[in-house]
């Protein structure tokens, strides 16, 4: 029943910025932990940033100081602000919502981010 829809990906030059958005539908958004993951060609999916239902954030070391995750529980949307982008940030980015108790989680369809050198 739950769905996540990402938007905001695209092509940007190194040093530029993008903001990804992920809109949630069909579940109680505010009680879920949220995350942004990415997967580059030939590589494993990795967690980029996460924000808990209480607002605590954490980031992969590779993006600390450059990316910011935030959530809007009124609009049922999670954002990923990406600054100082590097070519190695190129990947498909996926949003995720997880409720640990019942082990329920939802995934978005992914949005492509390409950073040119």
Describe this structure in words.
The protein is an all-beta fold and 117 residues long. 0% of the residues lie in helices and 55% in strands. The protein is built from no helices and 11 strands. The protein has strands at 3-7, 10-13, 18-25, 33-39, 46-51, 57-59, 67-72, 77-82, 91-99, 104-107, 111-116. Strands 2, 4, 5, 6, 9, 10 and 11 form a 7-stranded mixed β-sheet that branches. Strands 1-3-8-7 form a 4-stranded antiparallel β-sheet, with no helix packed on it. β7 and β8 form a beta hairpin. The model has no long low-confidence stretch (mean pLDDT 96).
Can I get a quick summary?
By secondary structure, the chain is an all-beta fold.
Number of strands: 11
Shape: globular
Strand content: over 45%
- Helix proportion of residues, in percent? under 10%
- Averaged pLDDT, please? 96
Low-pLDDT stretches: none
Number of helices: 0
Assign the structural class, choosing from mainly alpha, mainly beta, alpha/beta, alpha+beta, or little secondary structure.
Answer: mainly beta
List keywords for this structure.
mainly beta; seven-stranded mixed β-sheet
Show the helix and strand layout:
Elements: E1 3-7, E2 10-13, E3 18-25, E4 33-39, E5 46-51, E6 57-59, E7 67-72, E8 77-82, E9 91-99, E10 104-107, E11 111-116
Parallel strand pairs: 2-11
Antiparallel strand pairs: 1-3, 3-8, 4-5, 4-9, 5-6, 7-8, 9-10, 9-11
